[in-house]
Amino acid sequence: RYGRLHVSGRRLVDSHGKTVQLKGVSTHGLSWYPQYVNKKAFQTLRDQWGAEVIRLAMYTAEYNGYCTGTKQNQKELKALIDKAVRCCNELGLYVIIDWHIVSDSDPHTYQKEAKAFFQSMAKKYAGYKNVIYEICNEPNGGVTWSQICSYARPVIRAIRRQDAQAVIIVGTPTWCQDVDTAAAAPLKGKNLMYAFHYYASTHTDDLRKKLQTALDKGLAVFVTEYGICEASGNGIIKKNEANRWMNLLDQNKISCVAWNLSNKDEASALLKSTCAKKFGWKRSDLSESGKWVYDMMRKK
Ligand code: IDC
Hints:
Number of helices: 9
Bound molecules: ligand IDC
Shape: globular
Radius of gyration: 17 Å
Largest sheet: 8 strands, parallel, barrel
Mean pLDDT: 98
């Protein structure tokens, strides 16, 4: 829809330089819920929900993670990503390939694997205009911004050798909360963005302040994950806080992706746990989170 995306100052812009705010949905872990990677599902998200971007969360270390599972499993994950990227390409959706570190808190744990993975992805998709690379989901466990930078530089280089232009999103310390730290010393290079994550029932004014600080410094932020429940992915939902967050994102044209497309019995799952459909969901098939995200995106 917007052609090849670029980063201009702190904004994501289309091929004509006009600001773009993408909204969309993240998969759950691809190894857990591969069934939602299908063209009709993405088409439902596009046509019924108004989604413009799909994020593919590929865990690196949890259950059948890319770096901890078998070679066969790696192959299956790559095939699934390929299917997803092709579907998105055919449907005119942007797609984020997410190296989903969590329990492997320090991205250096699998830096070698990340370099090889992104080099092969960027080689395969260099001709596509809709692929975005997210190179480390949520660094945590005290990993500093400078450590993240030393992970990111060679990974970015590996992508750039294949694709000089694609947008690359870098995770920030403390589960993608410390964008203020990143803003104080951003990486050099073009078309780079920085990830910020929030869960509305846990994160409120303090975190909004951090985001505001980063924006004031001109950092290009992409919310590659948010939930309207607690940071556990479960617990209570706070719609007031969810609305406060979304107002802030809308005012600043910040793109955002909701966690997660599954029917898991948890508050962040967008489908009801009793819903077995793999696509074509009706509003009544959606969880409380799902209905909120659906209504919010449709308004756009
Ligand atoms: C959660 C899932 C949950 C799964 C768990 C595994 O919702 O079903 O069992 O991961 O670690 C994040 C992470 C994301 C989390 C999510 C909710 O990026 O992987 O998903 N969350 O806890 N950061 C903050 C919240």
